[in-house]
Amino acid sequence: MESVDLWSQLAALGQVVAIDLVLAGDNAIVVGMAAAAVPLAQRRKVIFWGIGAAIILRIFFALITTQLLAIIGLTLAGGVLLLWVCWKMYRELRSHGTDEVAPDEAMDAPDATVGVSGNAAAGAAVGGVTVGAAIWQIVVADVSMSLDNVLAVAGAAKDHPTILVIGLLLSVVLMGAAANMIAHVLHKHRWIGWVGLAIITYVALDMIWRGSNEVLMHTSWLS
């Protein structure tokens, strides 16, 4: 039994790491795209506050999500939300990410019109977007992406609280220290994104299955 539990924990940890890598890279790309839409002199400020907001939101959602998932029906709702995330990821992977911009690329890019798609707002000419508007655009995207990340990690960790804590801490570290590098790796090796998509889809379906059973059991118990 101990060996089975060990393998279960290792499998959960592997899923958590893969989810963290893919979603941290996606978040960095959103930050880079938004920064590329403001004048060059102001991009460093946008990148700083954009990544800072992502870290704060991850910590906030990490503190409340484990309690929220204990509420009957929210595991099911979280699984449905992750399926929507999977659909977005699938569309972005199909488009080959030709318009993706990482934060360091935004710093080096000349002042030119940059198309922004996916989780960021649709394209605008450089100089037509203020620093405040760009930061707000990132924060709005971060709310969704940070919740997606925490839900996916919680779903993959299942009944392993230690794995859950490791996964949430890792997501914060990756977003703060390595997101830019991960964004480049994902852009160069697109197959990693497909692996991440498969894992998150599996986690979403598993959450829907477990959440549906919880709702059915609770409904039958009430009746």
Automatic annotation (TrEMBL):
It is found in: Membrane. GO terms for cellular component: membrane. It is a multi-pass membrane protein. It comes from the Bacteria. The chain crosses the membrane at residues 12-34, 46-64, 70-87, 163-185, 191-209. The keyword Membrane applies. Keywords: Membrane, Plasmid, Transmembrane, Transmembrane helix. Belongs to the TerC family. NCBIfam families: R_switched_YjbE. This is TerC family protein. It comes from Azospirillum brasilense.
